[in-house]
Amino acid sequence: MVIGNSKRPLTEMVNNLVGGSIPLPNLPEEIITEILLRLPVKALLKFRCVSKLWLSLISSPQFIKTHLKISTKNNIYSHNRLILSSGPRPNVFHTFSLNPKIDEYSYVDTLLFDYPLSVDQDERIRIVGSCNGLVCGVLDLGNVVLWNPSTRKLKKLPNSGSLRGTHYGFGYDESNDDYKVVQTYWIDRDPDVYETRVEVYSSRTNSWRFVNWPGGYIFDGPGVFVKGAIHWKVHYDDDTKNWVVIAQNVTTETCSNLQLPMSANDDDAHVMLGVCGGCLSASYSYRNYMDIWVMKEYGVKESWSKIVCFPYLLMSHLVHARYKVLFVSENGGSLVNFGSDLIMYKPSQCHETFRLENDVEVEAATYSESLISPDFDHLAWS
């Protein structure tokens, strides 16, 4: 960003403007709005201090939603960040930019998670997923929270009053501008017979309710939100023991089956679902390597395409570790979380391993920077 002959960094200019050493630009309000809509969240949070007019503008529901829409239309990684937690202090998180144009070591933030007053301050946070800048997490005793790491705002969801969930999913119903959290758990019907129960939280009603489930048992980690649905890895009680994918539409709350690129059970490979470049992904972890597939045309089995073959080389100890594919770049580089390890694989340079302190299992996810409030103030405008 250049003003006159000055080429000062944006952060310096923001600080000077907020501090009063640079006068407000004499531009039409419409032009100022268009400029602000294209700035990163970190700058906008500082610009709220410039004037009451700017505070009102940047805090308005219309501005917040328009800023999100413009951000998501840009390069999908330009506003994306990696967030992770590891170590003895469960409330300390670190975030890193996924923008390849930014020096990865110069744009690192450390955040403190502010626990709700009613929650034990030592509870660890299990990350469910993220959507539109909001990160959904579950604390040790089953409390569900929504957190915007960019604005530091937090909301603890009401308890459902049912059993504690075993698996969770988080998504956005665009048709109704409604953020939804799904929790599932099993109940005993008969000896050795279990039934899956599913409840959905709606930000519109700030309450939970039961929804229908087609059957099958959910395994392995949180549901994956992409293409308007939360996707679950499910096993039916039959002789095949093969995994299937159930897509739970967050608008209609109906379910449909999707086919994996290859049939597999735990004897063949450890299969995990994810998101890569806005597409549903499936990773197959074998003894010596991992394959990552993406569904390029949603719902079409023939569109599954293998984009990465990730050799384990000297990392055989990771084969049975809990893992999560966090990021895949356009050139096939990938970042995978294995237990307490972060593995960065580059096809031309093999891999780098980052072991985090105390061998504590890492909680990590990617999220997009936004001004969306977990209190859903933006719902006042449509």
UniProtKB/TrEMBL annotation:
Q: Which domain of life is it from?
A: Eukaryota
Q: Which PROSITE patterns match?
A: FBOX
Residue stretches making up the F-box domain:
21-67
* PANTHER family in UniProt: BNACNNG10540D PROTEIN (PTHR31672), F-BOX PROTEIN CPR30-LIKE (PTHR31672:SF13)
The molecule here is called F-box domain-containing protein
Annotated source species: Handroanthus impetiginosus
* Species lineage: Eukaryota, Viridiplantae, Streptophyta, Embryophyta, Tracheophyta
